[in-house]
Design goal:
single chain, 9 strands, Bacterial leucyl aminopeptidase, about 35% helix, alpha/beta, aminopeptidase activity, Aminopeptidase, protease, metalloexopeptidase activity, aminopeptidase
Length: about 325
Amino acid sequence: MLPEEVSRFTEGEGDWWTIRPLAMDSVVMDIIKPEAREAVPRMQANIEAVSQSTYNYYLSSLVNFLTRHSLSSQFTSAATWATDQLQNFGYQVELIPINVGSGESYNVIADRSGNESGARKLILVTAHLDSVNLTGGREAPAPGADDNASGAAGVLEIARVLAEHPAKQDLRLILFGGEEQGLHGSKQYVSGLATSERARISAVINMDMVATLNTASPTVLLEGAPVSRTIMGELAEAASTYTSLAVQTSENPFASDHVPFIDELIPAVLTIEGTDSSNTNVHTANDTLDHINCGLALDIVRMNLAVTFRLLGVDESQTP
């Protein structure tokens, strides 16, 4: 996740943080108890396909890069590795260059077309791939286990599970670069969307920092805006139905890759560990695997997968 306003990292970009007044009666964060539906057996089976061993493999593989600073050679290696994983699942994958200040980084974009004839909706599942160590330069150790190998590994695990399920609607998976330097990857992606492509996007589910337990019980924060309320409601319901997650909500989006979408009134939601601001290891060399709570991460992945399944209109009759 991008550093907080008071300590945002910049590299030749100048200041871009802002202080925004809250509207009267606005809620910074709320804790809700969504009503659980009866679990659908077929959906339950699909969600149980989420694997701790494969998630941990993706997570540890990403952390093994010394850094994933957006302008480092290690980031390019990590992006190439992620591209290979997604291609192995059968997705059409592109490594798209982006500008980060005077340097270059990449977005990894993977697509799978739906099988419904005529106009199809587009569902995006996203995370940022880069990491940062604020006390060093681009080559300083930045394992970024929670921020954001945890979210990127979640995208890869969702990609793996969904690869076995034909669907009606189109799926796009994106691993953004340049997030820690100012949401460069997501800003440039959104600004480059054709009007017709923007209109097709029915939901963006973003994962950023999903694996540190900052609360007494496993908790997810769903952060969006009024345009995101329907998707936030569906995620909250899925959390209650298929996981043990407590749910926090906020309609004050900032500092992650859902924001450029929301700014263009595209329904996007950040899914992040509850009370994330108390995590002091991020953006340091201490953001390591020993602080990861795999149970929390897997439940957030399951919640996101359940909603993605529904939005895609997975055709169970064609499931292997």
